[in-house]
Structures are given as C-alpha cells and as structure tokens.
Amino acid sequence: MSEENQSQETDASVDDQVIEEEELIEKGFWESLLCDIEWSGGPVDIGDDKDPDGWRSKGFEPGRLVNCLQLLGFYSTVMYRVSRWAYKKNMKFLAAPIQLINHSVTGAEISHKAVIGPGLRIGHPHGLFIGPDCKVGFRSTFNQGTCLSSNME
Fold first, then answer.
1. Are 119 and 39 a contacting pair, CB within 8 Å?
2. What share of the chain is helix, strand, coil (3-state, %, to 5)?
3. What sign does the dihedral 80-117-63-143 (CA atoms) show?
4. Cα–Cα–Cα angle for 38, 150, 12, nearest 5°?
5. Residue 131: how many other CB atoms lie within 10 Å
6. Mind listing the pLDDT tens digit for each residue in 42-76?
7. Which helix (H) or strand (E) holds 130?
8. Alpha helices (H) along the chain
9. Cα 64 to chain center, whole Å?
C-alpha cells in the first residue's frame, strides 16, 4: 500500500472518530439527566432484591436520585441541562435567565452554549466557570474553582 493511500485511510478514520465523539456528546435531555443521576448518585445499597414497582428492572435505582437531591452540584447540573435544552429548542429568552439563576443559586457559571456530555458530576459548584465555546465529553467531574474556556480566534 502506498503512503498516500495509507494517509487517506488515517484521515478518514480520524474524521469518523470526531463524528462519533460529537454524537456521544449530544444526547437528549432525559438521557443526559439520567446518566448524570447515575454518575453523581454514587453507590446505592438497595437492601433486598425485591422490585415491586419494576424501577430497578428498567435500570433506575431510586436511591441514586435521593443521593443526588442532597448535592448542590446536582442542582447546578439540572439547571444547565434545562438551559441547554431551551437553547437547543431556540428558546434563548429562557436559556439566559436560567443560566443566571444557576449562577446566583449555586455559584456555578455554566454557559448554555457549552456542550457537555452525559454524566456530568459537580462536586462543589462555587467558582466553577464553563465558557460558551467549550465541549466536554461524557462522565466528567468538576470541583470548585475550575475554569474552562476557549480562545476562538
């Protein structure tokens, strides 16, 4: 095989990888939120194997949601997901105020224009900044004082 053909194959595989990564990042609102709950909720002791409501058989453990509701970072994640959803649905008049409420309540400034994959975990949201041109993969963890931005010149 010539070097030219080999470089073309390499370029094509890199392009395919970029497309796959972008598809992995942009998930639906509910799918991303459920992954956030799974990633942020931590281990859950369910006690017994009984499943009266069928929730666990569908992959959802209510204990994870209870754990998440005790974390300020989870509320920041939910507000980001809602503002991002509004932005994607072309309701920019809702996206910016939700972003401002997120910053006021939790101390995290996460742009509704940032693309963050499912599985976002924020340990301590105070002082967290994620700029509008950032792309973050799935299952990411952030703590206080983290700044992500990009220089798009």
1. yes
2. 50, 10, 40
3. negative
4. 75
5. 16
6. 654 444 455 454 445 555 566 777 777 888 888 99
7. strand 129-130
8. 3-25, 29-40, 62-68, 72-88, 92-106
9. 16
Q: Are 99 and 117 in contact (CB under 8 A)?
A: no
Query: Do 120 and 140 touch, CB atoms closer than 8 A?
Result: yes
pLDDT, tens digit, 9 for 90 and up, residues 75-127: 999 999 999 999 999 999 999 999 999 999 999 999 999 999 888 889 889 99
For residue 141, the cross-strand partners are 121
CA angle 123, 117, 9 (to 5 degrees): 135
- Kindly tell me the burial class for residue 75, based on how many C-beta atoms sit within 10 Å of its own C-beta (0-12, 13-18, 19 or more): middle
Contact 129, 149 (CB under 8 A): yes
